Amino acid sequence: MSGETSAAPAVSVLMTVHNAGRFLAPAVRSVLAQTRTDFELLVLDNASTDGAVPAWVGAGLDPRVSLERAEQNLGIAAGTNRLAARARGRFVAVLDHDDELAPEKLARQVAWLEAQPAAAGVAARTHLIDAEGRKLGGDFTLPNAAEYRAFTAYSQAANFGSHLFRREWFARFPRREAFPFSSDFDFVARVAEAAEIGVIPEVLFRYRVHGAQTTQRRRPAQIADEVLIRILTARRRAGAAEPMAELPGWRERLAAAEPGRIWLRAARLCRELGLPELAAYHARRAAGAGYPVRAQAAALGALRDPRAARLFFTGPLRTHGLHPWPPR
Known about the structure:
Elements (H helix, E strand, L loop, with lengths): L10 E7 L6 H9 L6 E8 L5 H5 L8 E6 L4 H12 L4 E4 L5 E2 L3 H11 L5 E9 L5 E4 L6 H7 L12 E3 L1 H5 L10 H12 L2 E12 L5 H4 L1 H19 L9 H8 L4 H14 L3 H13 L3 H8 L6 H9 L1 H5 L8
Parallel strand pairs: 1-2, 1-4, 2-3, 6-9
Antiparallel strand pairs: 4-8, 5-9, 6-7, 6-8
Helix pairs in contact: 7-9, 9-11, 11-12, 11-13, 12-13, 12-14
């Protein structure tokens, strides 16, 4: 169905789906149950084979829902870009097919962005849920734009699905296919360098943790993506060019079957690139994965830098004076 109406909606919710199974239904229901109703839900069936999409996003579901199908799996980055190019809303949210929005999410975040015209987007706090929808606890979230930006040198400062952005930022910073498992982290790091991303101190998003999700099945590849994004982010923030041509060779160096070994290799790579803080950060991660002696040896050159040494021993939060909200 087309989902087209004469008036453009305030919000476009983008959902790229590949074999969502039973999790698609609650995700779609959470969008349709929003208290702010002037939205469109754009769904890309990314060459699914499980039948979940036609069952839940088929004819007659809701006129605000629009469905298209890709003949082959485009991946999350290209799929999101394809949907973002069709979005008509002033604001855009990206929802994974196994997560859920709180009913008031769009209303609260649209109101916040309308009151903060200089902000590029706004995040919210998150609850983790299990495969059956039971609450597992709160997720990591930093409380303001300054702390948010600082932490994007290392990782995401809030769950990506908790965000709402102005649509123009998706045109300015398309998701990059060079990072098939972490293009969301790359996106928020770049946006946070150009404009404020605020945070609402309310739980407005539910992130599902289950064994079939990509972050569980492809963790080593995701870690490699994250390492490369950290390196590019450090280069940009130092005023240097992004060495995109180097990424394939660096990725090959990082290839490993276990996270601890990837972090060791990342520490050595960052030391070679003259990034002592990142070398210390990755050595710290390797130490936490069971490589303490080798991790310290890998970071030895970096630890001559006092700030890098502090980061290795105390972590990025204490080094940068960041204060995440305690989980709810």
